[in-house]
Amino acid sequence: MPPAAGIVEVKARLADARAVTVLTGAGISADSGVPTFRGADGLWRNYRAEDLATPEAFARDPRLVWEWYNWRREIIATKRPNPAHHALVELEQRVERFWLITQNVDGLHPDAGARQLSEIHGNIWKVRCTQCRQVHRNRAVPIPILPLCPACGGLLRPHIVWFGESLDPDDLDRSAAAVGSCEVLLIIGTSGLVYPAAAFASLAKQAGSFVAEINLDPTPNSEIVNVAIQGRAQAVVPELIRST
Ligand code: BJW
Ligand code: ZN
Fold first, then answer.
1. Contact 27 CB / ligand 1 (< 6 Å)
2. 243 CA distance to ligand 1 centroid (A)?
3. Mutate to test the pocket of ligand 1, among 22, 23, 34, 37 (most ligand atoms within 8 A of CB)
4. Of all protein residues, whose CA lies closest to atom 70 belonging to ligand 1?
5. Which ligand 1 atom sits nearest the alpha carbon of residue 198?
6. Closest ligand 1 atom, CA of 217?
7. CA distance 3 to 175
8. Of the candidates 191, 184, 196, the residue with the CA atom closest to the CA atom of residue 221
9. FRET label pair with 125: which of 1, 144, 188, 224, CA 20 to 30 Å apart?
């Protein structure tokens, strides 16, 4: 069967582009077995991410929030990058100016070998001291609850951007610049509901970029993009990137 028209067009755009930016969300890691946030498997003990991923939830009950992160660390520790993560590394190596913006905290892009990237919502394998603010790598599964800072004894929290918290300004500047100056923006596996990433499709369109979405289902971005391809990331993304 010949590939769908959208796939042919995105392949051609990618083949010619010298500046490509990619935005990914939980859908790309769903194909590695990591639960998405807003899918049916996104619940934990009847809590939604919005109930736990806030500074208020952590201040109220840090033990509960750490238990949620331990559950997620246990799942993510067993997962590996899939063909979509690997294909994006091939694209990074081929394109003159490439930037990957991921909302995912699972570390699967760097595990696949991605180097030109911003993890704009942080990384589940990093912790930050609530007192002295030092950031450390921490791969313990489970992490002993409540974890304390080796430097000052303060309470550690996940190095993750929660609702209502600001993104790192350098990450945000770098990402906005990459979105506003690319020839092609690929948006893969995100519901397009969480800001500021939710605004990137329109930002790129306003700047004159060609924007393509790859998602299992339609999203608010589907209306904005040049091409919306419905399908699984691990099947579609390698097809878009590989020349054969
Ligand atoms: C597949 C697939 C397959 C499945 N193949 N596809 C402007 C307007 C309104 C509100 C705001 C605004 N600006 C800021 C806000 C507030 C807030 C916000 O956006 N709220 C909205 C919910 C309305 N944003 C913030 O607070 C951000 N901070 C900020 O902007 O600071 C300044 C500020 C603050 C307050 C007010 C104004 C300004 C910070 C956001 C941090 C989000 N953090 C989280 C939680 C991290 C916790 C953790 O991981 O431990 O990050 S929220 C959660 O959602 C997580 C994700 O990264 C993020 C995005 O989710 P994603 O990736 O899209 O996943 P899903 O599950 O939603 O979707 C999966 C998609 O994949 C689906 O579409 C599927 O169809 C698809 N899919 N399988 C392809 N195999
Ligand atoms: Zn400390």
1. yes
2. 32
3. 37
4. 190
5. 19
6. 75
7. 31
8. 191
9. 188
**What stretches of 79-188 adopt beta strand conformation (E)?**
97-102, 117-119, 122-129, 135-137, 156-160, 184-188
pLDDT tens-digit profile of 140-199? 999 999 999 999 999 999 999 999 999 999 999 999 999 999 999 999 999 999 999 999
Locus of tokens 């409540």: 146
- Structure confidence by residue, pLDDT tens digits, 17-73: 999 999 999 999 999 999 999 877 777 878 888 899 999 999 999 999 999 999 999
Amino acid at 161: V
Ligand nearest to the CA of 148: 2
The beta-strand segments (E) located in 64-203 are 97-102, 117-119, 122-129, 135-137, 156-160, 184-188
DSSP states of 209-235 as a string? -EEEEEESS--GGGGTSSEEEES-HHH
User: Separation of 121 CA from ligand 2 center, angstroms?
Assistant: 21
pTM score of the predicted model: 0.97
